[in-house]
Structure formats: C-alpha cells, structure tokens
Design a protein that fits this description.
Layout: E1 7-8, H1 10-14, E2 17-18, E3 21-26, E4 29-32, H2 44-49, H3 56-62, H4 66-73, E5 76-80, H5 96-128
This protein binds protoporphyrin IX containing FE (HEM).
C-alpha cells in the first residue's frame, strides 16, 4: 500500500514545520500530523520539536502503544526518499564453495594418510620378512 505513496526527500519534509502544516519522519515514512497535534496525549510541543525531522528515535523512546501506531496509518502521506547509504547489502555468510573444498581437502588428507600408512607397512613387511 505504501508503495503507491509519493517519495519525499528530507529537504522536502523540512519545508513542513508549522503547526498547520507539520510533517515528520518515522521509520522512513512521512507523516502529516497537523490534524493530530491538538489531540496528541503527549502534547503539541514535543511534536513541534521534531517538526520536519526524523522523529523515529523520539517516538520509540516514549514506547508508544499499538494504538498510537495504528493512528499513524491515517496520517501517512509518503515515503522517505532514502539516500544511497541507507541500502544495506545483505552480507553473504555462507560460502558453499569454500566449505566444499575444505571437506574435499580433508578427504584427500585422510586418503593420503592411508596410502602413506600402507606404504610404510609394506616397507616394514619387506624389511623384516
Ligand atoms: C504522529 C506521531 C505520533 C502519534 C500518532 C502519537 C500518539 C500518541 C498517543 C496515542 C499517545 C498516548 C499513549 C500511547 O498510546 O502510547 C502518545 C503519548 C505520548 N507521546 Fe506521542 N505520538 C506521536 C509522536 C510523538 C513524538 C514524535 C513524540 C516525542 C517527540 C511523542 C511523545 C509522546 C509522549 C511524551 C507521550 C506520553 C504522554 C503521557 O503519557 O503523558 N509522540 N502519543
């Protein structure tokens, strides 16, 4: 659903800092909270403090209820146009090739050990018999 909303840059969000036109960013989403300012149980001042900014930390610090989070749905106006640094590449931890070659190496080592042991045994047999 949120995909259909427009994308705004941080600079665009910053332009909405007045009580009558108040935007803020929460978890990379842009909310217009003007209609809610007077109803906010935490008061109007805290919302004005984060006007046009990313308020995610402040919002989460308060530990808002699920009810508060549901209110956000109706206030959503768009998504934050993220800077390239926001994209975190998923680290590839598994290295199947390396694992395979390690296993193969172990197999070769064991095989070589038995061949060497057989040769030593054969040499000893020849020496003593
Ligand atoms: C649009 C965003 C926000 C919504 C919809 C919202 C909604 C609410 C709601 C419903 C409550 C009542 C308690 C609860 O249900 O958790 C509440 C309390 C509170 N909010 Fe927000 N809030 C928003 C943003 C913020 C921000 C950005 C701050 C801080 C900078 C903030 C600070 C507080 C505080 C301090 C209380 C506690 C009030 C008290 O218990 O006396 N809120 N908020």
């Amino acid at each position: 659903m949120s995909e259909t909303k427009p994308y705004y840059t941080l600079d665009e969000v910053k332009e909405h800092q007045t009580k009558k036109d108040l935007w803020m960013i929460l978890h990379d989403k842009v909310y217009s909270v003007s209609s809610f300012v007077d109803e906010h149980p935490g008061g109007e001042e805290v919302l004005m403090d984060v006007a046009g900014q990313d308020a995610t930390e402040a919002f989460e610090d308060v530990g808002h209820s699920d009810e508060a989070r549901e209110l956000l749905v109706g206030l959503l106006v768009g998504n934050l146009k993220s800077s390239s640094s926001d994209k975190k590449p998923t680290a590839k931890v598994s290295t199947p090739t390396a694992g395979k070659s390690a296993a193969t190496d172990a197999g070769v080592t064991i095989y070589a050990f038995f061949v060497a042991a057989a040769l030593v045994a054969f040499g000893a047999y020849k020496f003593y018999v």
